[in-house]
Amino acid sequence: MNYFPIQQNWRRLGPIYRSEEATTIWYPEMLAYQATRMELLNVTYAFPEFSPSLRPSSFESCDWRWNRCKPGRHPAFWDYFCNAACHWTANLGLFVAMAANPERPWRIVQSNLHTTVWDGDSTLWDAQFLALNVTPEDAWELAAEQSDSEIAEVGEYRLHDCDVPELDTDSQLLSCVST
After folding, report:
1. Residue 103 falls within a domain, yes or no?
2. Average pLDDT, stretch 159-175?
3. Range with lowest mean pLDDT among 15-29, 89-103, 134-148
4. Cα separation of 135 and 132, whole Å?
């Protein structure tokens, strides 16, 4: 088992992650993630309004990044996941994986412990665990080898049932996307 080398391929992948299509996937998912967290904590929360600088990492609730990297800038792909939000960033991973390597049969693999994207062979697309230095074998075990594990159909997105604000995609979201 191995991870797709996202950082080494960033010149090709960055535009896909920053695309309008990717943003329309991750932004509602991260709102759902935030709503779920706030519901669990019984906290009232104002959802962030979309801006060009917003990324999935903007929804982060811990400082893991600042302990993990050498001095200087962290890898750009770290902006496109959020620690403990693998279930909500998997659709983004699936979208980018399918756009970057459409010849592979990418699909989401999930359990209550972890969600990842798999090519049906030996490669995982998992920005979160790649950055956290979790081995691909451990990622696979947590996602695919649990009693509640599920493997989606090729290209099938997973939707979350959660109350999030309605998005006016023409004015609120897509017009703000930076490319």
Report:
1. yes
2. 46
3. 15-29
4. 9
Question: Rounded to an integer, what distance in angstroms lies between the CA atom of residue 136 and that of residue 101?
Answer: 19
Residues forming beta bridges with residue 107, ordered by sequence position: 118
Range of the domain at 133: 2-42+75-159
| Partners of 2 in beta bridges | 123
Q: pLDDT tens, 21-65?
A: 999 898 888 888 888 877 777 777 667 777 777 888 877 766 666
Name the amino acid, one letter, at 157.
Y
H-helix or E-strand spanning residue 100: helix 86-100
Q: Are 34 and 165 in contact (CB under 8 A)?
A: no
- Look at residue 51 and tell me if it is in a domain: no
Characterize the bridge pairing of strands 115-118 and 123-125: antiparallel
Q: Which amino acid is at 83?
A: N
How far apart are the two ends of the chain, measured CA to CA in Å?
Answer: 33
Structure tokens at 65: 């990044």
**Considering only 1-10, 58-67, 81-90, 142-151, which range has the smallest mean pLDDT?**
58-67
Is the entire prediction scored with pTM above 0.85?
A: no
Q: Which residues contact 131 (CB under 8 A, 6 or more apart)?
A: 68, 75, 77, 78, 81
β-strand partners of 108: 117
Residue 109 located in a structural domain:
yes
Pull the structure tokens for residue 116: 């990842």
| Total of domains in the chain | 1
